[in-house]
Amino acid sequence: MCPHDRTMRRQVLLFISVLALNSVLGQVTYSIPEEMAKGSSFGNIAHDLGLDVKRLQAGKARIHTGNTAEYVQLNKENGLLIIKERIDREALCGQIAPCALHFQIALENPIEIFPITVEITDINDNAPVFEKGERRFEISESAVLGSKFMLEKAIDPDIGPNGLQSYTLKPTDHFILKLHSQSDGSKKVEMILQKPLDREKQEFSSLMLTAVDGGQPQRSGTMQIHITVLDVNDNAPVFTRSIYKASVKENSLTGTFITEVKASDADKGSNGDVSYVIGNSMSSISKLFHITEDGHLILKGPIDYEKAKKYEIDIEAVDRGGLSDSSKVVIDVGDVNDNSPVINIISSSNSIGEDSNMNTVVAVMSVNDPDSEENGKVQCRINKNIPFAITPTSSYLYSIETDSELDRETASEYNISVTCSDEGVPSLSSSVTLTLHISDVNDNAPVFEKSSYEAYIVENNTPGLSIFTVKARDADWNQNARVSYMLEDSSVNGVPVSSYVSVSADSGVIHAVRSFDYEQIKDFQFRVKAQDGGSPPLSSNVTVKVLIQDQNDNPPQVLYPVQTGGSVVAEMVPPSADVGYLVTKVVAVDVDSGQNAWLSYKLHKATDRALFEVGLQNGEIRTVRQVSDKDAVKQRLTVIVEDNGQPSRSATVVVNVAVADSFPEVLSGLTDFAQDKEYNDNLTFYLVLALAVVSFLFITCLVVIISVKIYRWRQSRVLYHSNLPVIPYYPPRYSDTLGTGTLPHVYNYEVCRTTDSRKSDCKFGRAASQNVLIMDPSSTGTMQRIQSEKKTLTGTRMPVFLTCWMTPLLTECQSPRMCPLVLIVESSMQFALLTTSRSKISSSASKRRMEAPLHSAVT
Ligand SMILES: *[C@@H]1O[C@H](CO)[C@@H](O)[C@H](O)[C@H]1NC(C)=O
Ligand SMILES: *[C@@H]1O[C@H](CO)[C@@H](O)[C@H](O)[C@H]1NC(C)=O
């Protein structure tokens, strides 16, 4: 309690001395500071009262305090007043000043009373004290300047200068202290806000309020003032960046996390709670993206690089108080190879000619891939092994061109499949197929199946007989491949070849025009040309060799011995002739060939069969036995010469043999040979008969020829105006031999099939004035028309042999324009009689077919 003892003691001594002076007045007054140490003395009564110490002892001096506490003690030995109890002025007097102890020194013997006053002076033994060591304030940061906050006072029991003097507040950043003196002398302490508070800068602060007194040394008391700044929503959220960048691949799944945005709000609590919204709420962006409360930007819908490569999203951050900040998220959409190339054919040809030049463009197409970079780089190719190539003409245009020669005959159609693929990983591709037809060009000549032909025909054939067929194929198409055949002009033995053979233009069937005679001509050759229907036409030709085969149509002819009508020649055999004597040799030839000309000789009749024999092979007549005189002079041998044909033909020869040594002998026997005359007469009769028949036939022939001539002239005039396809007619050289074989074999029966209207292209016929149509189902044109006619007759498609008689009934024909025409068609199936009149024929082709009365008739 007395930190500064030394100083105090000096003060005390000073006071005592002063008081001692006052004691002279009879009343002793001491002034001592409070808080003197126990046992310390502060005055000498004996001295101050002028008393002897013995008196004090004798008088049993004592201190009388009444009922108050005894703070002071008297030492009777020396009269010193001694502090007995600590004296606290504040306890003794409080704020009352001056403060003194009043007591009396009482003496006995005699009783004497001396009042003593001990004035207690204040020392600064109390510091100012606050009732509470700390004080808390919660102040809104929005508190206005000048706001006052009452602080409590400090208490200092000391008085006077030792009492409370002033306050200080530290630090003074925001607040200053203001003191108001009050009537009781105390002070009201206020703290005034002089600078705005900011919770965000400093939420908590501590101030120290210090109260000081005026003592020496000065004492102070402090109080902590804790200030908590209450938050006010005075801060908007602030994004960490003004622009966020992110990227996301297209076609990412819904719910894919894209990026996170963050806005901070300096405020506290709910004032600092930030929520995020997408600003472009009206646009489609809000359908694609979603932002969560905590700022995660999430994919909500499908995004397509090909529609948008970039999105800019306005993001707003809002706190509960409605303050906000905005930022932007820029999203780059990453391309994924999700688009196949798109092929568009801009133009393409359906067909090109096989003679097209190299690099002929057949198609142009555009190819487009909306993807980017490698994903959008496209390569196109076409299938291999076709004569086409694809070339890029610009960044997205491709053309398909021919890159080698085309040949329709090798490939008439191409499927060009174009495949375009991008360079993405994995690569996507698409393809189209173009079908291109190669159109025909007449670039192939007809080709005969063989390089040359050989055909065989047996002589004495019927005219019109088909010998055989040449066939040429043309690799081209349709009209370019329609082959027609024709004879090339040449001559055989000075006769035009067309009088030997004809060729059917459509079918290539070669017909014999005439009957051949092996003995006149053994073979001949000609050329057949095959020509296609192209423009210009192409043709080729082939050699046809016709070999005529022999028939045994000639009997052997005996050259020797010569058979004359009158004279008789005889061979002579001397009577002495030996066995095997060569009498003569029958020499015969046969104009046929081969077996047909292989002659054998036989003895048919003989006067004496035993005498002669005939060499089978050589015709040598030899004696078989010795000739004797008994043998008749005249020997008559009949030798048959036979050829080896099938059937064989023969000739007989009579050999007269005279068995004599000399010619006169022979002559005598000659008359005997005359008996053969009967035989010769017979022969003459036959010859005359034959001549008569020939003459009759010749006349008949003439009549027929003339009538046919007239008829044909008429008919050709009619046909000129009609398209009548089948015109049977009798050729000018018509002659009917009825197969008697006595006339020269000149057969010229023609059936004229018209392709155009008036020209004949085929001739054939048969000897018995019957014209044979050989229906070849493969032939076209006129033949088909004939066939259709035929179908009406038979109702079948079978090949039918038609035999036609054309009988112009001239006798009944009064007016040339109304000549009835009878066409008798004999088929293998049935017979029909077509009767029509010329006027009807000439009306029209179709009408003719419809109107022609058709009768089944059996002839
Ligand atoms: C082309 O394609 C069509 C249809 O797929 C097919 O009928 C034809 O045979 C093909 N042609 C070639 C030459 O492959
Ligand atoms: C027949 O064909 C040959 C080649 O095969 C040719 O040299 C000749 O000129 C042709 N003849 C005619 C008359 O066209």
UniProtKB/TrEMBL annotation:
Q: Pfam families from the xrefs?
A: Cadherin, Cadherin_2, Cadherin_C_2
What Gene Ontology terms for biological process does this UniProt record contain?
Answer: anatomical structure morphogenesis; homophilic cell adhesion via plasma membrane adhesion molecules
Which UniProt keywords are listed? Calcium, Cell adhesion, Cell membrane, Glycoprotein, Membrane, Repeat, Signal, Transmembrane, Transmembrane helix
The primary location reported for this protein is membrane
Q: Does the keyword Kinase apply?
A: no
> What residues does the Cadherin domain cover?
26-130, 131-239, 240-343, 351-448, 449-558, 573-673
Q: Does the keyword Glycosyltransferase apply?
A: no
What does the record say about its membrane topology? Single-pass type I membrane protein
> Transmembrane stretches, by residue range?
683-708
Annotated signal peptide: 1-26
Q: Where in the cell is it found?
A: Cell membrane
Q: Which Gene3D superfamilies match?
A: Cadherins (2.60.40.60)
Q: Name one GO molecular function term.
A: calcium ion binding
Query: Which GO terms of the cellular component aspect does the record hold?
Result: plasma membrane
Write out the function statement from the record: Potential calcium-dependent cell-adhesion protein. May be involved in the establishment and maintenance of specific neuronal connections in the brain.
Q: What is this protein called?
A: Cadherin domain-containing protein
Q: Which species is the source of this protein?
A: Mola mola
